[in-house]
Design a protein that fits this description.
448 residues; mainly alpha; 16 helices; 0% strand
Length: 448
């Protein structure tokens, strides 16, 4: 099933397209949270800390997959909107071949450097081996994770946000069930959490790839599409590489922050691990809405309908604000209850760490959500330099301020750096949207 995002009221079309994507994120993040909840409840604080300590490294691998997802999705959306189906099929096959080769190379490199990566972020000795074990198993399944992300990007580019939802629902339910079986029943600890994720992601990746290729075969192109094109790879890379860099630099920045957090000991690591999983749930939800706007923008730009993009942007802002409210209420007003989900009784320092983190950053979700909506338009219309500039400013400020403030305020100084980076970056993204997209497209419309 495909959907043309260039027809109909922008707000209504965007809502219909984005809601399944948002529900997908809920299921994806539920099983990510389940990993930590089950580890903390049934294997203890050190197990929770071990899973959390390796999390920023796993996010580097995820960043490459997500960046590739964004790159192929924007180009394929543009070709689909322009009804260039033969070129679109070439873009899909080129993406899949490149994704498989790149993920295989990264898997080999990641497995060879697992312990070095854990040592680089100053992982405490008492959780080092467990963290390295979790990371190694996770990296072992990276090929499937990569292919799944690329496949979902292609589905989204074709206007189909429901099929990835079905795969994710099944994968999430399977992951949570396996988490409980392996950790609570079999007593496998951190290894059980890792193998549950490996199996669930592998199944989702294979089924998504099979369904996507079968659906594309049924699409008439008026001739055989080229299997691989260097020119198409160049076009995809112009979007994908900056997106990968953007996602990767954020993850690298988080590694520096994780190393700083690790210096405060296992209880603080455990509290931060719980809180950052909840925070990731919120941020990923906002990012997904931004990705929806990217697909909407790319299809409409491909169809030459720039005027629809402004309507989509403001519809996205309204959607994002509605999504922010429950996250803010849950984390700011009920932060203690949320963090307790991850903890056994007696984890006082870990509990306080998580609560303080959530209360400091959650009021600023309204700010970062607006940035991500503007980023969606910038990325979908090809303004990658502006998009990357705002993101890197956010990252640089957060990392620098975290190190400066940690010496004076302790771990609280690290959490304070988040809102500052978000505010400055949001101002930049909104300025770029107004100056480089909104005003230019308005002038071009007036000149017709």
């Amino acid at each position: 099933m495909t959907k043309d995002l260039t027809e109909g009221t922008p707000g209504k079309v965007l809502w219909q397209f984005s809601i399944p994507m948002f529900i997908s994120v809920i299921f994806q993040q539920l099983y990510n949270i389940a990993d930590s909840v089950i580890a903390g409840k049934f294997a203890g604080e050190d197990a929770l800390a071990a899973v959390g300590a390796s999390y920023p490294i796993t996010m580097i691998f995820m960043a490459i997959a997500v960046g590739s997802n964004i790159g192929c999705s924007v180009i394929i959306s543009n070709l689909f909107g322009a009804k260039k189906y033969k070129e679109m099929k070439t873009a899909v096959s080129t993406t899949l071949i490149t994704a498989f080769l790149l993920s295989a190379v990264l898997t080999v490199l990641g497995l060879a450097g697992t312990k070095a990566l854990m040592a680089m972020i100053r992982t405490p000795e008492n959780i080092f081996d467990a963290g390295a074990l979790y990371l190694g198993i996770y990296i072992g399944g990276f090929v499937f994770l990569f292919l799944y992300n690329v496949a979902t990007g292609i589905f989204s580019a074709l206007g189909d946000s429901k099929t990835p939802l079905y795969f994710l629902m099944a994968s999430s339910a399977g992951n949570i069930a396996l988490d409980y079986l392996f950790v609570a029943k079999f007593g496998w600890g951190v290894a059980g959490v890792a193998w549950a994720t490996f199996i669930a992601q592998s199944a989702a990746g294979l089924f998504a790839l099979f369904t996507m290729t079968r659906r594309l075969r049924a699409l008439e192109t008026g001739g055989k599409a080229e299997l691989f094109s260097w020119e198409m790879l160049r076009r995809i890379s112009l979007i994908a590489v900056p997106s990968i860099f953007q996602q990767s630099f954020i993850s690298i920045g988080n590694i520096f922050i994780q190393g700083l957090v690790n210096s405060f000991g296992s209880p603080v690591i455990a509290g931060y691990s719980a809180a950052i999983k909840l925070n990731t749930f919120a941020i990923t939800s906002f990012t997904t809405l931004g990705n929806g706007i990217s697909n909407f923008t790319a299809q409409n730009m491909g169809a030459g309908k720039k005027e629809r993009v402004r309507g989509g942007f403001w519809a996205g802002i309204r959607m994002a604000m509605l999504v922010v409210i429950p996250f803010f209420a849950a984390f700011f007003l009920a932060g203690e209850s949320m963090i307790r989900l991850f903890m056994k009784e007696g984890s006082t320092v870990a509990l306080e760490t998580g609560i303080v983190f959530l209360r400091i950053i959650s009021p600023f979700y309204f700010v970062i959500a607006a940035k991500l909506m503007a980023d969606g338009v910038l990325r979908g219309s090809g303004f990658m330099k502006q998009f990357m500039t705002a993101t890197f400013v956010d990252l640089a400020l957060r990392v620098i301020l975290a190190f400066l403030l940690a010496g004076r305020l302790g771990s609280v100084g690290i959490w304070v750096s988040w809102p500052v980076g978000w505010i400055v970056a949001t101002v930049l993204s909104m300025m770029f949207y107004i100056k480089d997209f909104s005003l230019k497209s308005k002038r071009s419309g007036e000149g017709k």
